[in-house]
Amino acid sequence: MAKDMTLLWGSGSAPCWRIQIMLEEKKLQGYNQKLLSFEKMEHKSQEVLDMNPRGQLPAFKCGNHILNESYAACFFLENQYKSQGNKLIPDSPDAQALMYQRMFEAFTLSQKMVDVVYYNYKVPEEERHDSAVQRNKEALTAELKLWEGYLKKTDCCLAGKEFTLADVLVFPYIAYMFHYGLSSERYPALAKYYNSLKDRPSIKATWPPYWQKFADQDALKTI
């Protein structure tokens, strides 16, 4: 089965990492994969464009099906391989509702995180405005307080005791933020969540190699 799958990916990309975690959870190891370099602009190569005309990673093919959106790929894999590996959509309506809520709510978390990291790193210093920097920081702080509250109410995962599709999709964002210096002291529930899942076999096996080579960053240290 896995031999009929191809993943073109980039290290440190949350969407790529999600699909890798999902493939591990569904016991679909042994797929064809290729690590490409964002720095060398390999995501704009013809090989990628043939699968993903947006010139973005991931580019994922499962049999004859191309799924380049990580949410779509993860849903597809869960539905196609329901009886294989770990079941990631719970039966309980309560847990299922919470899972769906958290996984889609994560788009807001991601956008606010990107506003801080990319504004600080990608916008030239002379074009940055202190008021915008402050506004972005305040928005992310308020968002993180929400997630801190959510995780104080659940046992260990986003939708309760069980690891679900919400964790596959959201954990890479949380890991990304701690990699960029998020404070464990200020966000203890998020830190507990991060530390309890980082050694899960599917996550450990797919940890971004780029992060292993470079020290953690400090873009989110003051959040």
Automatic annotation (TrEMBL):
Q: SUPFAM superfamilies of this UniProt entry?
A: GST C-terminal domain-like, Thioredoxin-like
Describe the location of the GST C-terminal domain by residue ranges: 92-219
Q: Which domain of life is it from?
A: Eukaryota
Domain GST N-terminal per the UniProt entry, residue ranges: 3-85
Q: What would be one Pfam family of this protein?
A: GST_C
Give the family per the record: Belongs to the GST superfamily.
Know the name of this protein?
Glutathione S-transferase rho
